[in-house]
Design brief:
The complex is a heterotrimer of chains A (153), B (88) and C (82).
Chain A: H1 4-26, H2 35-61, H3 64-84, H4 121-152
Helix pairs in contact in A: 1-2, 2-4, 3-4
Chain B: H1 2-22, H2 34-47, H3 52-60, H4 62-82
Helix pairs in contact in B: 2-3, 3-4
Chain C: H1 2-23, H2 27-47, H3 51-75
The chains are: A mainly alpha (153), B mainly alpha (88), C mainly alpha (82).
Chain lengths: 153, 88, 82
């Protein structure tokens, strides 16, 4: 548990950091960033809450079991999307330019871009993003738990 | 004696770094550029993505990202083995 | 020209903060100067037109590593206080 100044700033900044991280994951195929970078930003928001409030208060906000479920979902979705294109090759982009989900044809050249393009890349970006945010968040949470356990002895 | 060995090691290592820094290609002109040309010209059409870096990370080099995810999973498993809840 | 001057200044401040991180006696101050090194390194990546690497460096190098170090410092005691 840190001082009141740190806790007030955390209350203001926490939601903004989470929204920025999910924005980076969502727009990975249009702007710089992607799954790994966005997941790291979201995990840094989790670390901010954990540092500012201490393990005992923050563990109710961040459930460890939810994080492990998220990590499993991310890994399975990544492999599953990769296997769905096995008709041609592993990691084949079967949704691009198909007209269905994320399948709009893109404009060639320099343009601001359309969110509904790029085929399987946004799906993979979300899968990797969930995996990275759950993995790094659970690393920080486990370290805080281990240090608290060492204090009690 | 120990001081001279440390000085010699410092000189050798900094010499290697300076040599590689002098021999470096100038910024924006790599040695082999056929693959870069292919990605820059064809990536937007083939994967319908505006961000070529993401199309390389998740499409052309998907196996690399799979290995990266495996490395992260191994790191999480290692940390949770270190800080696990011990049953009494 | 102005870009090269910015790069030289940023690289010099990176070296200064790295030396500060090694030489500080107080561990918390050393960790903060290491975070400053990472943040300036991500600025340097951004100047070199690699924004992906810059976001990853700012998220992991500057935020998560600092958080882990601060947790570790909170979990230990200073040698003089034993």
């Amino acid at each position: 548990m840190m001082s009141k100044i740190v806790r007030t700033i955390t209350n203001i900044l926490y939601s903004s950091i989470l929204i920025f991280g999910f924005y980076i994951i969502m727009h990975g195929h249009l702007t710089p960033g992607g799954g790994f970078q966005g997941g790291a930003v979201v995990a840094s928001g989790i670390a901010l809450v954990l540092i500012a409030y201490g393990y005992d208060t923050a563990k109710d906000w961040i459930k460890k079991s939810n994080l492990s479920i998220l990590e499993s979902i991310g890994g399975l979705a990544f492999i599953g999307v990769a296997f769905l294109g096995i008709g041609t090759t592993f990691f084949y982009n079967f949704l691009a330019n198909s007209g269905t989900l994320f399948g709009n044809p893109t404009v060639i050249g320099i343009n601001p871009g359309d969110l509904n393009t790029a085929g399987v890349l946004p799906l993979m970006s979300w899968a990797v993003g969930l995996k990275v945010l759950a993995g790094l968040g659970s690393i920080i949470l486990l370290m805080a738990y281990g240090i608290k356990k060492g204090d009690e002895k | 004696m120990k001081k001279y060995v440390a000085l010699a090691a410092l000189l050798v290592v900094s010499g290697f770094f300076l040599l590689s820094a002098i021999e470096m290609h100038s910024f924006g002109s790599p040695a082999e550029e056929d693959m870069d040309r292919y990605f820059i010209e064809n990536a937007q059409e083939e994967t319908s993505t505006n961000n070529v870096v993401t199309s390389i990370v998740f499409d052309y080099r998907g196996f690399d990202t799979l290995g990266e995810a495996t490395v992260l999973f191994t790191a999480v498993v290692g940390v949770s083995l270190l800080f696990r809840r011990l049953r009494k | 020209m102005i870009e090269e001057i910015i790069q030289i200044v940023v690289l010099l401040i990176i070296i200064v903060t790295a030396i500060m991180a090694v030489s500080f006696k107080d561990l918390l101050a050393a960790v903060i100067s290491l975070a400053a090194t990472s943040l300036l390194l991500s600025l340097e990546f951004y100047i070199l037109q690699a924004p992906d690497v810059a976001i990853a460096e700012a998220g992991i190098g500057a935020a998560l590593t600092t958080a882990i170090f601060i947790l570790a410092i909170k979990g230990t005691v200073r040698e003089e206080e034993i």
